[in-house]
Amino acid sequence: EMEGAEHPHNENAGSDPHRDCSDETGEVADPVIVEDIEPGIYYGISNENYHAGPGISKSQLDDIADTPALYLWRKNAPVDTTKTKTLDLGTAFHCRVLEPEEFSNRFIVAPEFNRRTNAGKEEEKAFLMECASTGKTVITAEEDRKIELMYQSVMALPLGQWLVESAGHAESSIYWEDPETGILCRCRPDKIIPEFHWIMDVKTTADIQRFKTAYYDYRYHVQDAFYSDGYEAQFGVQPTFVFLVASTTIECGRYPVEIFMMGEEAKLAGQQEYHRNLRTLSDCLNTDEWPAIKT
After folding, report:
1. What number of other Cβ atoms are within 10 A of residue 148's Cβ?
2. Which pairing describes strands 137-139 and 107-109: parallel, antiparallel, or unpaired?
3. Which residue of 63, 93, 102, 196 is most buried, as measured by CB atoms within 10 A?
4. How many angstroms separate the Cα of 89 from the Cα of each of 16, 37, 92, 111?
5. 106 — pLDDT class (breaks 50, 70, 90)
6. Domain spanning 2-78+159-287 has what CATH number?
7. Other C-beta atoms lying within 10 Å of the C-beta of residue 199
8. What pLDDT sits at residue 125?
9. Which residue intervals define the domain Putative exodeoxyribonuclease 8 PDDEXK-like in the entry (predicted)?
10. Cα distance between residue 277 and residue 285, in whole Å
């Protein structure tokens, strides 16, 4: 059962007995090494290095829950980068909420071009070439407007504003060893707020009512339990884990925003499920047998 989330207490929740992988100057070093990494929390690993590196993530556990062979296939099958979608609105919104200072570095709003004229076509071509050279993702003015309205909708919710504005770390990478199997696990919370021991995960959905009933389908209860246990492995405390969910569909002139928290029963089920997935992976690694047929 999903529960509504309440504000945290207004006192410090204690010290942070985690491993801080920054250098002596206080600057966070990006461990570019992706073949081996020690358990701990790292604040400077790029998204690309994280996904290319070691450790089992929640999404990989999802594959194992489907069929173990799917886990291997997704790791090894080539990706046709020419066919991947240019813009995912959720990705842009995610950046706007969690890393607003990075938004202009990653996204650029396309001006209007008169495609009925040769000059307009050439201007558009030159613009797109420049964007390709800088690595920025092009968004339309309408997409930019929608993202901003969704962001302001989050900020209109008191707890949403608190989650966004509270001091914390976006996109930190946590690594820990599963005590039962010894497998290196990893997670990359959207935002952690260590002072109060909160984790926020940002989701977008076309149907916010559907989100309330579909969290088992998407194994969000597994995500909650897996991330929470990873956090506890570093900080020594079970965090408050919340989903900040923003609708991409307008209702009554606004983009709805809600904040959800799993009930204890759902969280326990998620914990049992991910441990079962890890045991399956351990068996596959030990026998080098990877079942591919769904049962």
Report:
1. 12
2. parallel
3. 93
4. 34, 32, 5, 18
5. confident
6. 3.90.320.10
7. 25
8. 80
9. 57-292
10. 12
